[in-house]
């Protein structure tokens, strides 16, 4: 009987070890971003070990990673009934509450998860800390409170230290994050995620060469660790953006390394979608369209596939397909839209609204379907409101209309672009907004007068240019020109005078060589003549002085000669 008892205990110990190993295998698959493999392991564990609550909890967390909230909630609720560690599932339900803005419900669930903790327990605090970080609007300070509780109980646990690194990094404390990641890897050098994050911090400081070396070092230890290839891909992508001379070469390396990463995942729909997101960043739209069509074979109803089809169709010169795909995505699915969805829909509409024909003599004629164009601009505006970074994408669109001399349409695009003062094109977009407003209103039909609101918008645009670059001389002269169109407005006329005088000052201060340029000589004559005309009724001596300066540059200028005679 004693011998039988010994073998029974040994068998039970072996069984517990096998279970732990299986759960760890699932966690390792998740860390390697092999989600389908992890789900298969976890579902098997749930079927064979339904009394182990952590199986449900880890699977529910994986569902949340994949944005499958309904599946996660069902899994957590089943996990609550497990005999062992079922209360961990309250943490998952609390995370769902946080994501839905229910902080009271989240606290209640977190309290239930920690109610029966023993002195040596710490994982509950760690997972609550992660819950605060994993939501759409992370609260890193709340996460740090929980994670430091876990650290107080188990100061050298690698996963606690890894989580602390994530929280410090999210909170902007890079030094503490670096220290926590390093300590995590020192505590357990199998936690490659910690070493990976050290490289991520290096990449964030734009030390791309050093970051690449750090990721290569991980692959030297474990050549099949897929996330390292993903980070190399993203490093090359950022490197390309910061080194225009090497943009094409680095972008190519980015795509190649992402393909290596994909080969080490499970080619599931989820991993294909991550790949599609990266193809959007690297602007490989031919590959994106191919990937979207492959995804559609796996899941014909998934709304995100419509997004990728819409993006790639626009970039591959098919705006009709873009409008169809993105309208279906935005109106027929429950998917949460992002700013880029509306940006692409708007760009497709404005493109479709434009018709350009070329006559036999080589002259082009452009027409615009104004209602469709206006609808497109409204979509673009909505996209920028949702994500101000989308303003960076509008420069080329506005320039296309400007170059076709469709100035009012160009102004409508640039007006949206300039709503984001942090846009990398803010100065350029403001200049062209003011330009377009002027050229769109300088030759109105007889009887029409310029709208003062348009002049006000142009003033703001040129003021933004002048604030950022006070020596941009054309900003002054175009501001003077558009204000001159309001002939009966004393404030506008004063702005005209001020800006012509500022143009003269700025060019003069640049030196004789700049003044002598033919284009500037012509503008000096314009400025002197307009200033002379303005002062002709109130200060004849000053007016004569300006006309004489114009004639000193161009003795045959008719405006100056004839007005001087009248004076």
UniProtKB/TrEMBL annotation:
Pfam families: TPR_2. TPR repeats lie at residues 525-557. It comes from the Bacteria. Keywords: Repeat, Signal, TPR repeat. InterPro entries: TPR-like_helical_dom_sf (IPR011990), TPR_2 (IPR013105), TPR_rpt (IPR019734). Residues 1-20 form the signal peptide. SUPFAM superfamilies: TPR-like (SSF48452). This is Cytochrome c-type biogenesis protein CcmH/NrfG.
């Amino acid at each position: 009987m004693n011998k039988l008892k010994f073998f029974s205990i040994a068998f039970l110990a072996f069984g517990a070890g096998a279970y732990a190993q299986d759960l760890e295998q699932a966690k390792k698959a998740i860390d390697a971003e092999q989600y389908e493999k992890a789900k298969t392991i976890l579902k098997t564990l749930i079927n064979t070990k339904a009394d182990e609550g952590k199986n449900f909890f880890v699977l529910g967390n994986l569902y949340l990673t994949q944005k499958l909230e309904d599946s996660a909630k069902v899994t957590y609720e089943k996990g609550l009934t497990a005999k062992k560690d079922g209360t961990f599932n309250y943490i998952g339900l609390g995370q769902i509450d946080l994501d839905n803005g229910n902080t009271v419900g989240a606290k209640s669930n977190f309290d239930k998860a920690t109610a029966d903790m023993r002195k040596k327990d710490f994982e509950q605090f760690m997972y609550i800390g992660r819950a605060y970080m994993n939501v759409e609007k992370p609260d890193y300070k709340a996460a740090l409170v929980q994670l430091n509780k876990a650290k107080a109980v188990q100061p050298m646990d690698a996963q606690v230290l890894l989580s602390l690194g994530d929280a410090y990094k999210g909170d902007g404390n890079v030094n503490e994050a670096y220290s926590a990641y390093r300590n995590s890897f020192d505590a357990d050098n199998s936690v490659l995620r910690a070493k990976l994050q050290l490289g991520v911090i290096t990449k964030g400081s734009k030390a791309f060469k050093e970051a690449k070396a750090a990721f290569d070092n991980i692959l030297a230890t474990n050549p099949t660790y897929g996330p390292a290839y993903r980070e190399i891909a993203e490093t090359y992508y950022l490197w390309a953006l910061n080194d225009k001379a090497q943009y094409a070469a680095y972008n190519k390396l980015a795509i190649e390394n992402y393909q290596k990463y994909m080969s080490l995942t499970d080619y599931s729909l989820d991993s294909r979608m991550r790949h599609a997101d990266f193809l959007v960043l690297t602007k490989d739209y031919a590959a994106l369209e191919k990937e979207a069509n492959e995804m559609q074979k796996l899941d014909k109803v998934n709304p995100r596939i419509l997004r990728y089809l819409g993006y790639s169709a626009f970039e591959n010169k098919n705006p009709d397909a873009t409008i169809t795909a993105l309208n279906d995505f935005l109106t027929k699915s429950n998917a949460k839209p992002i700013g880029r969805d509306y940006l692409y829909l708007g760009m497709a509409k404005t493109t479709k609204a434009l018709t350009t024909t070329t006559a036999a003599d080589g002259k082009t004629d452009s027409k615009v379907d104004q209602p469709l164009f206006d609808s497109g601009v409204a979509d673009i505006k909505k996209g920028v409101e949702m994500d101000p970074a989308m303003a960076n994408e509008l420069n080329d669109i506005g320039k296309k209309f400007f170059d076709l001399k469709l100035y009012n349409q160009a102004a409508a695009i640039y007006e949206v672009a300039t709503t984001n003062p942090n846009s990398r094109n803010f100065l350029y977009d403001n200049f062209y907004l003011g330009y377009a407003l002027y050229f769109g209103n300088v030759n109105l039909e007889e009887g029409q007068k310029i709208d003062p609101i348009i002049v006000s918008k142009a003033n703001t645009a040129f003021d933004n240019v002048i604030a950022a670059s006070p020596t941009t001389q054309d900003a002054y002269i175009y501001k003077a020109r558009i204000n001159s169109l309001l002939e009966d407005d004393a404030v506008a006329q004063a702005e005209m005078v001020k800006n012509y005088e500022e143009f003269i000052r700025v060019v003069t201060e640049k030196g004789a060589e700049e003044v002598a340029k033919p284009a500037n000589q012509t503008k000096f004559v314009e400025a002197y003549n307009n200033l002379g005309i303005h002062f002709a009724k109130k200060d004849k001596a000053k007016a004569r002085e300006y006309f004489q300066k114009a004639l000193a540059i161009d003795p045959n200028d008719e405006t100056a000669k004839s007005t001087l005679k009248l004076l």
